[in-house]
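Re: your question about histidine kinase

S., sorry for the slow reply, the queue was backed up all week. Below is exactly what I fed in.
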Amino acid sequence: MSRWLDVLKNMRFKQKLILSYLVVSLIPLALLGAYSYNQSKLFLQKQAIQGLQNTVGTLARGMNDKTEQVERTVDSVVMNTGLQRIFATNYASLTTLSEDLRNYVSPYFSMIKNLNTDILQLTVYTSGKMPEYGEFILSLDRIKEGSPWYKDIAEQRKTGWYLESSELAVFRPFPTILYNQMSGILYLKLNKDRFFDSLTTTTMTTAQSAHDGLFISDPNNHIVYSNNIEAAEIQRQMLQAPLKNKDMVEIDGLRYILIQEPLRQANWTLHYYIPEQDISMDATSIVKATIALILTCMVILVALISVFSHTMIKRIYHLNKWMKQVQFGNLQMDIRSDSRDEIGELTNRFGIMLRRINELVTEVYQNKLIQKEAEFKALQAQINPHFLYNTLSVINWKSLKIGATDISHVVTMLSRFYRTALNRGESMTSLKDELQNTQSFVEIQLVMHDYSFNVSYQIDEDVYQYDTVNLSIQPLVENAIVHGIDQKEEGGGKLTIKAIAKQDTIDIHVTDNGPGIDKQRLGEILIKQSQGYGLKNVNERIKLVFGKEYGIEVISEIGQGTTMIMTIPKYRNTKSQ
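Result:
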């Protein structure tokens, strides 16, 4: 205990003052606020749930009325003795049957459809000798195999509800007809959107949330209707998750309030859910009381601060005045303080920071000078390529003058090679220039090799409109000549260069008929810096610019030659356009 008293005794005055303010004001306010918030949250949440239950109950009653209306429509058909008589009679005369169908069945069914706009189809499936009549009377054989709901007929003798594609189907077996024991099934297909339009247009005014939802499930936990298709997965999880209490369920760590109301006629359940945190709570009275208490405490705190902090504020004003001068550009002040409290330390640290800023300004100025000098040197370095081109032009002119056309040809190819290779310092170039650069290199190599090998070009003209990494094809050709053709011991060398335009990519094939590459070196040629090959750098540059799915593939067998395939996308460099 004495140790803590010593710590408190040695604390600075400002720390003691802040600590006393926290103890006197913040702790009671925090306790009172927490208690008030929890009590108001429980009360208002209960009130909000009650409101949601009333709203969902109203919706459920509306849906029950709709299902009961459908039930009454079904009863009016299957319990109609006139219809039972017609379906049970074995007509000897087709004329009599036609009159009954035309004068009774057709008008009666048409009237039902006109009175119930939700009904899209009304059909009686019969198993007797009754002929089919439009869509009103069809043979039972049509649904025995292909209709899933037909299997439920044997299990229940009451009205069944079935979700069929985007429509709702309602079916009910006719009572056994005593005349000849013939059975029949009434089938109604309902417009799903119109049947559930009251739910689609309903807004839950009790709570507004971007994560709430309304859906209906059947006894097999299949979702019959949902006003938010995108939340179907969450709704399915709610059907499986156990309730933590009467109205609460937790999905993926988020607590939802779940209100459920049964729809008796269809044996469905109406569900409404909303995140617990999204329920709007009107805590006006609690907020007003808390604000009044905070204002009272603030008045007391301001009075205490005004008494104890006058001496501190005076020095803060001086520090603020110095900061304003620095803000307006006066960085040449020497700011120091002899005080050892927090304000004195802050003043001295601001003075140190100001001196450091002056040092950084001087350093940045010197770096600018160094940068300008480097730019000047880079500008001077650009003269060298021009000097090289001019020199090669003079050599070419002299060669033509003395009739040395072979020297002129080599000099011209060399000049064109370096112009495209340097590419004005750009890392990207057109495929047309890159292929011309490669052709110039091959021409020079042909002269150097005394035309001892043949060259074949197979270029799709479509590739000329695209761009690639500068100096990417020439290294492949150089490898093919140095490590392929030059190593061939017998027969003439052959070099083939292809550029193939595919749907989204371009393949560059460089093939030689050299001795090939052994499997060990072939496996390392693109992942290690193999001496004399240099393919690793080209492969890495392509992947860096275009992505990991592009690059170089090497295919080779001993004695069968080597093919290097460079794959790049159809890319246009906007900077070069």
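The first strand starts at residue 119 and ends at 126. Residues 375-384 have pLDDT under 50 and may be disordered.

Happy to talk it through on Thursday.
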